[in-house]
Structures are given as C-alpha cells and as structure tokens.
Write a structure and sequence with these properties.
The chain is an alpha+beta fold. It folds into two domains: 4-134, no CATH class; 138-214, no CATH class. Helix content is 39%, strand content 14%. A hairpin with a 2-residue loop joins strand 1 and strand 2. The relative contact order is 0.15.
C-alpha cells in the first residue's frame, strides 16, 4: 500500500507535487515555478536537444515510478494520449477555463501536469475526491477574456493564428517576455505566476511547436 507522504517525499526535491488523485491514479505536476530551479539546472535543459522539459519529466517520472513499484504515463506520449485532463476534471480540482487552459481551484492557471502515477494497490493517506465548483463560474468580469492584446479568446474559441502572429511579430511584447497576458489577468493564484525565465521558456516552446506543426 502506497502512502501519499512517500510520494510527496520523492517529488519534493524536483519541485513537483500531487495535483489530484482518482482511483489509484496520482496526477503529478508543478504549481507556479516550483519545478523551475530543478529543471533549469538539469542536463536536459542545457544539452540543446529537442523537448527538454518532456525528457526531464520522463526521467523524473520513471525514477519515481520505479521507487514506488508503480506504472507511469506521460501526457505528451501518444497517440493514443492518456486522458490526463479528463482525470483532472474527474478528480474534482480542475476545470476548463474560458482561455482553454485548465484552472485549478487552488493553483489557478499556474499549474501543469507532468505525469501520472498508476498505483498497483489501494493507496493510503489520500483525501477523498471532493468536487468543487470552477472558480470561473463565480468570476463576473472574467478579465482573462479582455486582457489579450489581439482578442484571441472569445470564451468559445481560441484564435491560435492571431496569437502566434502577435507573439512572432513582437519579441519585446509583454506576452512574449512575461507570459500570456490573459493568463496573468486571472485573479486566482496570482502569487504563483511563473518566473520570467520560466514564462519565456514556455512561450518560446509554444512558438517552436506551432512553427513545426506548419512545416
């Protein structure tokens, strides 16, 4: 039987934490820039090879899984891709937001799932699933929708091409330097906004992925 404290002890040196649990599935990721010091000083971050964060996540996730005698799956491996976001929604802690990203009731838009541990036996010490309402439902102004400089978000759609054109056209923009303006406008978890270097890493990776998909 695996106790949650054993998992947390293995994750803590890497700046990772348990973001939700569901039927023996343990969702692991970062809140804010908790993992940035560990990742940015890693071999994967500096070796110049593609997908450094995915490779770092795979190494850490595999190591933790071996220690726990568990299986592990990664949201970036597929197809078929594991339904990590569906697990997060069913765990009752995260929901789709008006700007497509999932919002966590505690960590806001500043969290990400790096891998999921699939335990072989019933866990212990895990809190029961307690569904909470999406914080977006009680946000009357939804400033995330009006903060985008190119109105890429409508609440129903995300105009990716408009977003990419703006980011690619102005390297000094607030979005490019500090992260998505709509994301930063959300009032939930503002203290967890990504550090500047962390934010730039993700924006550059996003642009590179969009460029690669069109080639």
């Amino acid at each position: 039987m695996t106790d949650i404290s054993a998992i947390e002890d293995l994750l803590q040196p890497h700046g990772l934490l348990v973001l939700g649990t569901l039927d023996g599935i343990v969702l692991v990721g970062n809140a804010g820039s908790s993992m940035w010091p560990a990742f940015s000083s890693s071999q994967e971050s500096s070796d110049g090879l593609p997908h450094p964060l995915d490779r770092w996540s795979r190494r850490i996730g595999t190591t933790v899984a071996v220690e726990l005698d568990a299986d592990v799956v990664f949201p970036f491996e597929g197809p078929p891709y594991p339904p990590v976001l569906d697990w997060a929604r069913r765990a009752g802690q995260a929901y789709p937001s008006p700007i497509s990203l999932f919002i966590h009731q505690k960590y806001g838009l500043w969290h990400a799932y790096r891998f999921a541990l699939l335990l072989r036996g019933p866990p212990s010490g895990f809190p029961p699933v307690a569904h909470v309402a999406s914080p977006c439902l009680s946000c009357p102004t939804q400033p995330c929708l009006s903060a985008c400089p190119v109105d890429a978000f409508t609440g129903d759609t995300y105009r990716v091409d408009d977003c990419v054109a703006y980011l690619a056209g102005d390297e000094r923009s607030e979005c490019r330097q500090r992260g998505c303006s709509s994301r930063r406008a959300c009032p939930i978890g503002v203290e967890l906004q990504y550090q500047t270097g962390h934010a730039r890493f993700h924006m550059n990776a996003f642009l590179a992925a969009q460029s690669s998909s069109k080639n």
